[in-house]
Each structure stands twice: as C-alpha cells, then as structure tokens.
Amino acid sequence: GSPPAAAMRSEPLVQAASLLEEATDLLVLHRDFAAAVERCEAGCDSLGPGTGPERCERLSEEVKCSLCVVGIQALAEMNRWREVLSWVLQYYHVPEHLPPKVLELCILLYSKVRDPQVMLEVGSSWLTDQTNKSLPEYGSLLELYLLHVLLPLGRFEGAEELVRGCDVFDSQQQLAFLGTICESRCQWAQQEEMHLAAEEQQDAATESVLGALSQKLLTMLTLLRRALRSMSSHFYLFPYKKMLLATFLLYLVVVRLDPASPTSLPFIYKLVQLFRQAWAAVFSPIHRPPIQD
C-alpha cells in the first residue's frame, strides 16, 4: 500500500537534514565551498513551503536556517559576500522572515567587509516587525544593529529613536545605549574636524608649491625679456612669439606636469596667466619690434 502521510511529509525533512550534513562536511573537512553551497541550495529547495504539522514545521525551519548558515559561511570563504543577502532572501523572500541567527550573521559579515549600508533597510524592517519583537533574540539583535550598522553610518538620530522606542530595554539599559550613541557622535564629529584640517593643510601645501613654481617661471621670463630686448635692435624679424612659446612649453615639460591629473589643473591655469602677463611685459608697445609669424 501507499506509505503513511506522515512519512511522506517527513521525507523532504530527512533529505534536507542529510544534505545539511554533507554541506557541513564539505565546508569544514574538505574546504570545498562551492559544493557546500550547492548542497545547501538543494536542501532548501527540497523543503519547499511548509504545510506539515507544527513539530515538522519547527524542525524544517531549524534545518533550513542551518543550511543558510552553512551557505553564508561558504559564500564568504569564496569572497562572494556580495551575494549573501540576495542568496538568503531567495529562501525567505522578505527581511522580516529571516531567522535571528541568519540576520546576525549577515550584519556581522557586512560590518566586517565595511559595507553596513547593505543591512540598513533589512535590519530596520526586521526590527520594526511586531512578530519579531516577541522573540528572545530581539534585544541582542537590536544592539548588534545599533553598533554595527547605525553608528558606523552616522545615523545617530535613528539610533536614539530606536533605543527610546524599544520596550525590551529597561531604563538603565536605555541610558547606557544613549550614552554610547552620544560618545559615537562626538567621535564622528572629531573625525570630521580632523578630515577638514587635513584637507586645508593639503590645500596650503599645494598653494606653497604653486607659488614656488610661479616665482621660478617669473624669474626665467624676466631673464628672457632682458635677452630679447638686448637682441631686438639686431634681429627685428626674429619670431619672438614662437621663441617665447617654445620656452614656455619646455618649462611645462621640465616640471613634469601631468595634464590628466586633477591636481595639475590649477598649476596649468596659473602658468597660462603668468605667460600672458610676461608676454604683455616683453612686447609692450614701446619695445615691440615688427613681428612676422
């Protein structure tokens, strides 16, 4: 005869548990991360939507969560951490349904790779869900989200609102977290000030170098003007303009300015201005000889 209905319902669970064991061995013992991910995917697919008794449902969710945990670790080992969140959500569909352990791993992973922005909306959706607020892990996950997502991103007002609106924390815990947020805000402001000071110092150094180069160019062009004026009575038809332009271009080559570099733009702009001033001084109407280009 046909197998009992209970046995048929437990078959996917047994298969998924077997795949979980294989995936764990591949991850830990054999270090075959790609194969471990394949087993995890097969296990999650075999479970499908839960329609069995409550006990089977609970076991199924535990196995599914464990498969995702192993899969996350395997993806991270292959440096495929960017795929982790989308990979997990294909089995849980919305952030609110993520198991606490999976959410914890995702927060820690994206914090470690310095990309907490990925978890900003996901964590917020999970923490504002009424069903999740009754879970025993809610307080620890809120703290994790606060320390590894909101504060590193400078979301201080959102962090304060989250702490004040949390019923899980008592008044003493709330004060402690608000103190942590205040301290983090001060550190953030200090870092901003240091960053601005460093930028100002760099700008001052750039201006100093630019001034030295400008002075060098003016000295060179002054000497050139004297030489040209001393020769003007003998060589009226000499192409002064081309000579001065060639000297200017040679100077650009000597100082090795890189036109592709953004830092070279103010140098070139000021050198052009100085060139125009020197040109006007050299060939003023009083000393200007007849020039033929």
List keywords for this structure.
293 residues; mainly alpha
Structure, described:
- One of its GO terms (molecular function) is ATPase binding.
- One of its GO terms (cellular component) is peroxisomal membrane.
- InterPro entries: Pex26.
- The longest helix is centred in the C-terminal third of the chain and has 61 residues, at 171-231.
- Helices cover 72% and strands 0% of the residues.
- It contains 11 helices and no strands.
- The protein is mostly helical.
Short description:
The chain is an all-alpha fold and 293 residues long. The chain contains eleven helices and no strands.
Alpha-carbon Rg, integer: 35 Å
Low-confidence stretches: none
Shape: elongated
Helix and strand succession? HHHHHHHHHHH
Into which percentage range does the β-strand content fall?
under 5%
**Number of helical stretches of at least 4 residues:** 11
Provide the helix percentage.
Answer: over 70%
- Number of strand segments: 0
Which structural category fits the helices and strands?
mainly alpha
InterPro entries: Pex26
Pfam family, one: Pex26
Protein name: PEX26 protein
GO molecular function, one term: ATPase binding
Topology readout:
Layout: H1 5-28, H2 33-47, H3 54-77, H4 84-92, H5 100-112, H6 120-128, H7 138-150, H8 156-164, H9 171-231, H10 240-255, H11 264-282
Helix pairs in contact: 1-2, 1-3, 2-3, 3-5, 5-7, 8-9, 9-11
